[in-house]
Structures are given as structure tokens and as C-alpha cells.
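Need a sequence for this fold. Nothing fancy.
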């Protein structure tokens, strides 16, 4: 009898667990996404949303290898396009505009007064790994629009290529680096002063939320997606530029 009760309990728990949906979000958007998820989980009775954060490329790799996931919000169109090319996307909705800038640490504020100062000899820069994070990919595009001497100066001063924006934020907060590439919204959220790229080199990207065809709970995923879009003002509260539908 005890054994039967245990089996029934296990099956019920398993059924309940499978109702949850997995929402993969790039680290740069983790704060507003976390607030949206927490708010939803407080009112949702039938299922919960599990938030997973990291570099856009890291997350896509997890989705591909685990074959588990319901919604994917990368920080760049590049990784959205990769997901589409892999045949993972059922529906894609543009959510935010993303503008890269160079965030400054406390030490960095003393050294950097303008964009040209970032190539000074004593400046330490954190860039992004283009294989794992959107900002790494975006900087590859920005480099093509900058003078060669500036690009060489930036690369010479680069001391680390982070796997996600959370690492860069930590490097800035701990003064491990003077300058780190982040989105302007991330700089605002964390209170970093920042310098913008020259207008000719500025690349504004788009972050899209993607419904995945590997979802085991696509109806639940659609319910949360609707809630997310209805509450995207939370992203605006954190300094993000929300795209009007």
C-alpha cells in the first residue's frame, strides 16, 4: 500500500513539474525578467516559470543540448537568427532595442572623460566573448565602423573577454577593469557612468522573445508570453527601450 501511494505521489509530482515552463534570458535583462517572473508566479495557480540566465550563446547551447526550453530571450538579433536557423522558433516578437556602450568603474571614471580616452596605455578593458554573449558579436560589427588605430588600441587594452554581461558588471563593480562593454540599460540599472560609441559606429540591436518548438507545454508558454508582453513596462522601468507593438 505504501509503495502504491509513493508511486502515485511520484507521478503527481512529475506531472506537476512538467507543467512548469523554462524561460531562458540573457544576463543583461535578468533584473526586469526576474521581476516579471516573480510577479507571474505569485498569481499563477497551474504552473510556474523557471528563469535561467546567462550569455545568449551559452543559453542557446543549453537549449540545443538539453532539448528543453519554452521561451528564449537573447540580447541580440544574431542569436535569435541562429535559433531560427536551427529550426527552434515557432514565433518571434521584437521586445527591446539594445544600445552598447562602455561602462566605467570607479577607477575608470577617473581615467575616462571621453571615448578617445579608452585607448590610453593604462586603461583595462573588458570585452565580450563573441561565441557566448551578444555584446561580443555586436562589438565585431562596431569594429568595422571604427578607425583602425582605435580598434587596435581597444584590443591592446583588453584584459578579459567575458562569457556574459554579469561577469563584466562584476569586473566593473570590483574595479577589476576600468571599462567594460555593456548595454546602456545595464549601465543605468547598476548606476555606472558610461561613454557612448561615436555615432558613426553605434550599432542598435534588437532583443526578441522567442517561442520554442521544443516546448513540452506550448499552451502554458503562450500564457506566460502574453503576460510578459502585457507587462513589458517593467523593462522600461529598468531603463530599457521597449519596442511598441
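Here you go.
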Amino acid at each position: 500500500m505504501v509503495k502504491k501511494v509513493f508511486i502515485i505521489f511520484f507521478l503527481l509530482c512529475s506531472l506537476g513539474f512538467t507543467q512548469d515552463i523554462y524561460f531562458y534570458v540573457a544576463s543583461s535583462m535578468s533584473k526586469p525578467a526576474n521581476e516579471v517572473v516573480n510577479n507571474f508566479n505569485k498569481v499563477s495557480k497551474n504552473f510556474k516559470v523557471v528563469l535561467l540566465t546567462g550569455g545568449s550563446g551559452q543559453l542557446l547551447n543549453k537549449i540545443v543540448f538539453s532539448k528543453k526550453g519554452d521561451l528564449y530571450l537573447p540580447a541580440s538579433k544574431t542569436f535569435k537568427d541562429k535559433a531560427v536557423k536551427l529550426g527552434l522558433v515557432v514565433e518571434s516578437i521584437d521586445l527591446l532595442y539594445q544600445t552598447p556602450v562602455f561602462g566605467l568603474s570607479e577607477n575608470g571614471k577617473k581615467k575616462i572623460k571621453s571615448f578617445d580616452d579608452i585607448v590610453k596605455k593604462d586603461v583595462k578593458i573588458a570585452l565580450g566573448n563573441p561565441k557566448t554573449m551578444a555584446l561580443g558579436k555586436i562589438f565585431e560589427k562596431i569594429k568595422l565602423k571604427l578607425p583602425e588605430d582605435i580598434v587596435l588600441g581597444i584590443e591592446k587594452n583588453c584584459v578579459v573577454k567575458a562569457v556574459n554581461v554579469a561577469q563584466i558588471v562584476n569586473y566593473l563593480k570590483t574595479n577589476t577593469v576600468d571599462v567594460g562593454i555593456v548595454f546602456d540599460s545595464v549601465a543605468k540599472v547598476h548606476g555606472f557612468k558610461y561613454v557612448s560609441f561615436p555615432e558613426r559606429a553605434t550599432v542598435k540591436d534588437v532583443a526578441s522573445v522567442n517561442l520554442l518548438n521544443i516546448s513540452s507545454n506550448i499552451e502554458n508558454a503562450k500564457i506566460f508570453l502574453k503576460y510578459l508582453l502585457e507587462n513589458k513596462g517593467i523593462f522600461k522601468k529598468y531603463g530599457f527601450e521597449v519596442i511598441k507593438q
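For context: The mean pLDDT is 91.
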